Amino acid sequence: MSRTRNIAVVALSASLAVSALPAVATANPLAGSSQSPYAALADHSGIQAALLHETNVYRASRGLAPLSSHHMLDNVAQSWSETMASQRHLRHNPSYVNHYPSSWRKAAENVGTFNQSVAARDMLQAWLNSPSHRRNVENPEFTHVGVGWATSSDGSVYATQNFAAL
């Protein structure tokens, strides 16, 4: 059983200004509701669901199967996002694969830091703008993903996607 570790650190800029986010309304997982476009940022499950949705919409546009959410991967991603936010330091988790079930045969991780008012679509687009992150999102072998995000004391959002294949 071989595990491939794709290390792709790209310091995704936290300089996404609200004025530069014309697609915020359409990327809002609460579209059509009376809540603020950024209300999902206060709810981990909301932004996790939105990022999973945006990732799968993108994968479908490329003819790829959707990724399923997995609670163990969500926990790994969430824990690492909280670690990065508390330390205000973007980096890959050096031991993320140690937290995956042993039956999984492939693993990869995307990490990024963003402006506090970023939408899920913009997080995904930043990763897609990086060839190594894009390879993780587009890898047809991956079947599952975990998503995590946390806000640091300065308001920056740290996000993680942990990919896996059964």
UniProtKB/TrEMBL annotation:
Listed Gene3D superfamilies: CAP (3.40.33.10)
Lineage top rank: taxon: Bacteria
Stated name of the protein: Cysteine-rich secretory family protein
Signal sequence range: 1-27
Domain SCP: 52-163
Cytoplasm found in the keyword field: no
Segments passing through the bilayer: none
PANTHER family with a match to the protein in the record: SCP DOMAIN-CONTAINING PROTEIN
This protein's UniProt keywords: Signal
Pfam family, one: CAP
Segments forming a coiled coil: none
UniProt-listed InterPro entries: CAP_dom, CAP_sf
CDD domains per record: CAP_bacterial (cd05379)
Claim: Signal is one of the keywords in the record: yes
